[in-house]
Every structure is written in structure tokens, then in C-alpha cells.
Amino acid sequence: FRSKLAAMILEKPSLEFLSKDLNCLYLGASSGTTISHLSDIVYNGVIYGVEFAERSMRQLIQNSEKRKNIIPILADANFPESYANSIFTPIDLVYQDIAQPNQAEIAIENCNYYLKDNGTLILAIKSQSIDSVQKSEKIYIQEKRIIEKAGYVIIDSINIHNFAANHIILTVQK
């Protein structure tokens, strides 16, 4: 299953916070599959798609050139200040799907920098990218603690194992 956003919607279809007018920061945009789905949902908003890999960025640009609300940004999500000059609207939603051991910290840094008060973070956690030896449940607890310690509130934890092994999605409020 390619899109964790689609998996989340299939598991929990009543996601009221996803509206057509949201401005989004998408961390880990990759080649553009999920960001194109998000583009269809938030068609009146703007999505800033941050991607680090040049090859994926080329594909993202090709896949999003007909979509007026996607702005591809070649940058490292570890350094949110490095792409501040490319973001022109307040951010209502941060969506993160990156396979990094410090993905919770990256999400927090970006939310602290860009996310409006009462904004939402959607964080896809792949336990095997954080620690391939530990049990997934232990990793999920650890990542939730990092988010809560930073002052964020976890609204929901959605198990998407039916679509993506060793994954959960957290919806978080600032």
C-alpha cells in the first residue's frame, strides 16, 4: 500500500480536520503519490512539499506540475529554518512521512517553527526505521512520549498495520 494517508482515511474516515482550505507542510513528499491525494482534499489550500532526495524531487516536480496548490521544496526537514523563505502562508497542518530514527524530533522542530496554534500534525511512524530490534509497541510508546514531552496533545493513534506493516499514524494538536 503506497499511501499512509489513504490507509489512515480507510481506518478512520471521520477526520473532520481535513478541509479544503488547509495550508499544509508535507515533510517527506517523496515522488508525489500521497501529496497528490492531499492536494485533492485541500484543493483551496497550499501544500509545501519538502523532500531531501534529488531523484524523488525530480519525480515530485513531474507528478505535481499540473497541480496548482503543490510547491515542491528541495530541503532537509532536519533544518526547518532552511526553507522558511519558501513558505508564504500560515500552516494549518503538518503531515510527516519520513523514515528517520529522529522523526518525532523532526516533526516537533517543524511544528514549533511553522504550525499555527491549534494546528494539526499527522505523523506516520514506522517503528522499523527507528529501531529494527525493539518491538513496535515499545517504539510507539517512546515516540508518543517525545511528542507529549514537547507540549503537544495526541488526539488519536491509528493502527494501519493492515495496509503498512509496523506503522501507526498519530494525529496531534499543537
UniProtKB/TrEMBL annotation:
The protein here is known as rRNA 2'-O-methyltransferase fibrillarin
Keywords for the protein's UniProt record, in alphabetical order: Methyltransferase, RNA-binding, rRNA processing, Transferase
Pfam name, any one: Fibrillarin
Query: What's an example Gene Ontology biological process for this entry?
Result: box C/D sno(s)RNA 3'-end processing
User: Which SMART domains does the entry mention?
Assistant: Fibrillarin (SM01206)
InterPro entries to which the protein is assigned, alphabetical: Fibrillarin, SAM-dependent_MTases_sf
Which family, according to UniProt? Belongs to the methyltransferase superfamily. Fibrillarin family.
The terms under GO molecular function for this entry are:
histone H2AQ104 methyltransferase activity; RNA binding; rRNA methyltransferase activity
What SUPFAM superfamilies does this protein map onto?
Answer: S-adenosyl-L-methionine-dependent methyltransferases
